Amino acid sequence: MMVSTKGRYALIVMIDLAANQGEGYVSLSDIAGRQMLSMKYLENVVSILNKGGLLASLRGKNGGYRLAKKPEEYTINEILNLTEGSLAPVECIKNGDLNCDKAASCMTLPLWVGLDRAIEKYLSSVTLDDVICGRRKTMLGDWCTECKE
C-alpha cells in the first residue's frame, strides 16, 4: 500500500481545517500558505473532499471550507478511501473483490486479505481528532502510554 500525494494532501487539508475551525470558513489560499502546498493541487484535492461530503463550502468574499462534521467523527480510513479509491495492498483484492483467476489456488491470497483487513481496521480506529491531538495507537490497537489523555 502506498498513499499518494493526493491522500497525504487530503489529510493535511483536513488537519488544517480542524485546527483552524474556530475561524469559520477557511480559504484555500490560507491553507496553501500555512502548509506550503501548491494551490492548484489543493483545488483538486478539496474538490474530492467536498464532493465526498467531508467538507462544507461557502462562496464569496468570506468563503472557503470547513469540516462538515466534528474532527472526532472522521476516520483516517474514510478520508484516504475517498481520495485513494482503495488501500488494498495488491490489485487482485482491490475494492473488496477477488479479481484473479487464480484466487482458488493462490497461496498468498490469505496473506493479502489479512493485511488489507489489518490496514482497514487500524485506519478506521484512528480519528482526525486523534491525529490533531497527537494520540497514537499501537498496531495492537492499544493507546501508547505516553499518549493517553
What's the number of domains? 2
Whole-angstrom Rg: 18 Å
Which class best fits the helix and strand makeup? Answer: mainly alpha
Tell me roughly what share of residues is in helical segments: 40-55%
Strand order of the largest sheet: 1-2
Provide the residue-averaged pLDDT.
87
Largest sheet properties: 2 strands, antiparallel
CATH topology of the largest domain: Arc Repressor Mutant, subunit A
- CATH 2nd-level architecture of the largest domain: Orthogonal Bundle
Terminal CA distance reads 31 Å
Task: Give a topology summary.
Blueprint: H1 5-19, H2 28-35, H3 39-51, E1 55-58, E2 64-67, H4 76-84, H5 109-125, H6 128-133
Antiparallel strand pairs: 1-2
Helix pairs in contact: 1-3, 1-4
Describe the structure.
With 149 residues, this protein is mainly alpha-helical. The protein folds into two domains: 63 residues, Arc Repressor Mutant, subunit A, CATH 1.10.10; 61 residues, no CATH class. Helices cover 46% and strands 5% of the residues. Helix 1 packs across helix 3.
From the structure above, extract its key features.
single chain, 149 residues, mainly alpha, Arc Repressor Mutant, subunit A, 2 domains, two-stranded antiparallel sheet, 6 helices, 46% helix, 5% strand, elongated
In summary, what is this structure?
This protein has 149 residues and is mainly alpha-helical. The protein is 46% helix and 5% strand. The chain has a two-stranded antiparallel sheet.
